[in-house]
Amino acid sequence: MKKTLGVRELAFPAPAFVVGTYDGAGMPNGITLAWCGIVSSGPASIGISVRPGRYSYKSLMERRAFTVNFAPEKYLAEMDYFGMVSGGDVNKFEKTGLTAVRGDVVDAPYIKEFPVNIECEVTHTLDLGAHTLFIGEVRDVKADEEILDASGRVDAGSAGILTFDMTSGSYLLPGALAGKAFGAGAKYK
Ligand SMILES: Cc1cc2nc3c(=O)[nH]c(=O)nc-3n(C[C@H](O)[C@H](O)[C@H](O)COP(=O)(O)O)c2cc1C
User: Fold this and answer.
1) Per the domain annotation, does 4 fall within a domain?
2) What is the pTM of this model?
3) Each residue of 63-88: pLDDT tens digit?
4) Does residue 169 have its Cβ closer than 6 Å to ligand 1?
5) Which of 64, 98, 118, 153 is 20 to 30 A from 138, alpha carbon to alpha carbon?
6) How large is the greatest C-alpha to C-alpha distance in the chain, in angstroms?
7) Which domain holds residue 110?
8) Atom 31 of ligand 1 has which residue's CA nearest to it?
């Protein structure tokens, strides 16, 4: 028997992004986000939902650019810290010692120590209520060579890229392989 849980925001798991921006004075900042994901291909686009009260919100509106940075377990505390304090109060890069590198393509910094970085240009914004959805068109993707597999694809599993579990409020490590997409369903074709 099903039990109704009412209205909740759930996805299992959610991504965990650290989104990099420059503020009006050119200070690099980062915000940890879980309300986010890939929303289109051709053009490849990413959606991030940010509350208007966040320091990053103004930067996103002004600069119309951001980066998405993925953290491995080694940087779990840094990623969490980026989601705990505001760039209006503290320079999070200075505090953590992480390196902000100017994007090659867009007006936003990426995090050198994080192994995958995506540069995006804001193409749309949509006020949804508590959050504003920013759609970013992907302009470039970079990855540390060590985490690429033999085919040149990002091996997020062995890189230990963290995700977020909304129900427990915890970061997760990649889990076990359960089956192949576009393969397991073939038995019903
Ligand atoms: C795991 C995690 C997920 C979060 N997800 C979001 C989110 O999706 N949207 C949002 O606006 N804030 C989110 N936050 C809160 C912001 O990261 C936090 O308020 C941060 O300090 C804002 O930084 P800023 O003021 O420098 O922009 C999240 C925080 C954590 C720790």
Assistant:
1) no
2) 0.98
3) 999 999 999 999 999 999 999 999 99
4) no
5) 98
6) 57
7) 14-188
8) 83
